[in-house]
# Entry
Amino acid sequence: RSSGRTVAIKTVLPELRDDLAFVEALAASVGALTELAHPNIARIHEVLDDEGAPAIVCEFVRGINLKERIKRIAPFTLSVAVDFAVAMCEALQHAHSVGIVHGDMRPQNVIISPEGLVKVTDFGIVRAIAASADASSRHIARAVYYQAPEAASKGLIVPATDLYALGVILFEMLTGALPYSGDSLVNVAMRHQNDPIPSARSLNPGVPRALDGIVMKAMQKHVERRYAAAGDMLADLRAVRDAFRFGRSLAWSPMEQSPAAVVQPATQPAPEATVSEPPRPAAPETPLKKSSKEVAPMPARRGDEDRIPWWLRFAIGAMIVVILMGTVFGAALWMATFTKPHSSTFPNLVGRSIREAEREADKLGVKLIQREEFNDRYEPGIVYRTDYEPGRQIRAGRSVIVWVSRGSRLVWVPDVTGSTADQAEAKLKEAGLVPGQVSRQYSDTVPYGTIISQNPRSGKRVDRDTPVALVISDGPENQSESEPSVSEDVDAEHVWSITHSVRRDGLGPRQVRIEYEDLQGSATAFDDVRSEGDTIRVQVTARGPTLIVRVYYSDDPIPVSERTHIWNSRR
# Structure
């Protein structure tokens, strides 16, 4: 178009173009989205026709999605997490006010620009996804971690569904973890419906009570117990943001009352009516049995108290007061001594193994919360930081966060050429690497069963757990005319065919990503949702005699085994 602006164009996946239910529902949904105009919503400019399927022309937003930012630096500082949540809630409030529910709120659909501007994308297309079984199966693998119970069990999408997802996102920003995870998508969905709502403070003690309460209220299982509208949640988020700015108390919780001061009624309540006690019935007069001898009452001895000296009466009173005060003081001392938690000196855990640190913590009655991160200075399994200063007094029952080293992120690639396959595997594992794709090649000079070449080559620093591709010698070729060896020209260009069969493990659809590495670097060959048993076929052009292939299920690497086949034809 002639507007001169940079835009993003979103088109329907080729495999969904023939799904008429999806295409028609998508076309009906996106038409109303052009009316959404808010600084925190990625603007849709127009909807075009792309050979019968809608193509969405929308605002181009530079930056990374919030999920990627969470992976890199979560937990966020409290003020940043609240600012992002306020921006997302403002976007939802605007959309809800014009009758549009997002339905697919998750951090992958939130873009953060380099300047920190928040843009929510992909409003209103969840109903189109629900119209297609194929699209739904692809979508559930991404959305189940943020999906409200009513959406998963009944397919009900309402404004409160968006607020539930925002509560999950806020929890993830504050803790760096999801509130619910599991070994299958069904298990995750069931935990959203049945498990207690976890507290963000249990994973990050720095989260104030008010902010933890906002998460808890947004994530209530029943719609009627959540915030009634996005504006209500936004008011609480802004109250927390203002408290950070102006030093106000955050001891309140929206699960109990709002942060606004409680206003006393203008008029005093009417005094309660006094109920007079009915007169007691008079006791019946019982005739007294006259004794044979009447005893005359003894005359009162008036003035006995006058015979007790005043100073003695004062001393007795003072003694009673002293005894009472001593009793109270003793009880208070006993309570302070025997009922408060035991206090000890917190030791220095830095440099110790996590096992040693746990034993020390058990002695003190302290709970350790572990966070594992890469660290170039400390060996794997060694504590390198704590959030409690050594030498300070600490009471039993307190939680302390400890950071445990996963070792250096980068490791040196050893030279395994000339080794047997078993020797090469042992060397790679010792270096923090894993064997990758193994191929075989005839060789007149390298003995059978030994390594001819490797990729990455030795002396290079790579990420820990990087697969190293190996070429193993098959010895001399028996034929009289041997084909040229691929090792003759290490820079030769090859066309590689990769096929992968998705595991049948009962976990349902999952995000599958296939990456490869050649002499020019790393690239992604495939990244999409696939079901169990699906076969993925891709072709890539790469340089060099070997190709490293990595396969990931939902960002988790899996062994490249017999399920992945790789072959090449030299150009």
About this structure: The first strand starts at residue 7 and ends at 10. Residues 258-306, 479-488 have pLDDT under 50 and may be disordered. The chain is about 30% helix and 25% strand.
